[in-house]
Amino acid sequence: METTSTQPYLLRALYEWCSDNGLTPHIAVRVDETVQVPREFVQNGQIVLNIGFDATNGLKMGNDYIEFKARFGGVPRDIFIPVNRVLAIYARETGQGMAFPEASQEAEAGKMPGADGESEVPIAEKPQLRPVSPPGSSKDAGPDDEPPAPSGGRPSLRIVK
Questions:
Q1: pTM
Q2: Beta strands in the chain (DSSP E)
């Protein structure tokens, strides 16, 4: 029996978590012909979008797509994103969130992404994917532990394996 993808459920859960905690949810999207976004804002084949309540109108996060209206430079635009094109969702203020593997990479590799211990999800400069240590971890972490959290600067996305 084949089950449905967990990605749309995780996207909705992290969106709700951001909203409940007063954080601003952003998504990083791999843009191709199936994605409807303003192309002038696409950089390196990717776009980062604010999907917070104040930035969107009519947000629908279904199992197959994310759809909403948003303003870009004061001009309202219809946005349509297949769920499998979402690379990551994270809170702008903290960088906490989750990255997702690309479906094409899974098919090409013939295996589960990250099986070798490394994330196979390429992300452009926004958001920066850097492992973040849990609060209270020491700088003398062992080889299996994540490196210490970066201090100051831009928030980073926490990779959950």
A1: 0.66
A2: 25-30, 46-50, 57-61, 65-72, 75-82, 86-91, 97-99
